[in-house]
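User: Sequence in, structure out. Go.
Assistant: Echoing your sequence, followed by the structure tokens.
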Amino acid sequence: MTSEPDKTLIQQFAYRFGEPPAFHEATAGDDTLAYLAGRRCHRRYLDRPVDTALIETLAAAALCAPTKSDLQHRDIVIIEDPSVRQDIEGLFAKDSWMSKAPAFLIFCGNNRRQRQIHEWRGRPFVNDHLDAFFNAAVDAAIVLATFVVAAERLGLGCCPISELRNHSGRVSEMLNLPDHVFPVAGLTLGWPADEGRVSLRLPLEVTVHKDRFNDADLQRHMDAYDARRAQIQPIAKQRFADEEDYGTQTPYTWSEDKARQYLKPERADFGAFVRAKGFKLE
């Protein structure tokens, strides 16, 4: 995305959040804010491969991202073997849009290297608790976000896939992930077949706090967001609409959709998977 006038940037933020933030005049030629304000996920791709060297270059750029205390507890697995890709696609719904993506990557948290370093240096690993898992998960998420930005700036489209964690054990086996290495998310990658859609976000009053957390007025802001999103970006498919307990609602709002999304158990075995990988979560 090329740089856009400041007015357009304000309009982009206003469209995304309902109200723009306090305006800060960007430096001349800086289009980063305009790109971020207008960025979007892509789930439809051209039938055009993404060069392997380009993917590896993007991976290198992403791995330049911040990492907790320079520990570098994150790895990227680029899926190239057609049989491995087919096995992974088999975890998702038949004819899923994910199978049509030219490239697929998996971002992993890796606390194994840290433990190997301790072993090689003859130092005890004394921080064997929740933080070891948490640091690796956050490191992987930061690299994933950085990869997305790098790819999109070159004209590629991406979509992170958290559904991968529904099958953490299977994915771990497919990728031969050892103890203390675990999948955080997948990522589809390709040349976009359409412009995608800018998803509306919660008002900044809800998600940006000053000095102290405050959600005293959350319901009012949520109601306004629900109404605005239902008008501008109505959700096409209502979850569990054919089930007696749920049915259909008009309008069908974002908060109703999110409430339904978490009505049924999902990834209830993830904690057991993480412990089986050798992590202690106390």
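User: And one key feature?
Assistant: The domain at 52-196 is CATH 3.40.109.10 (NADH Oxidase).
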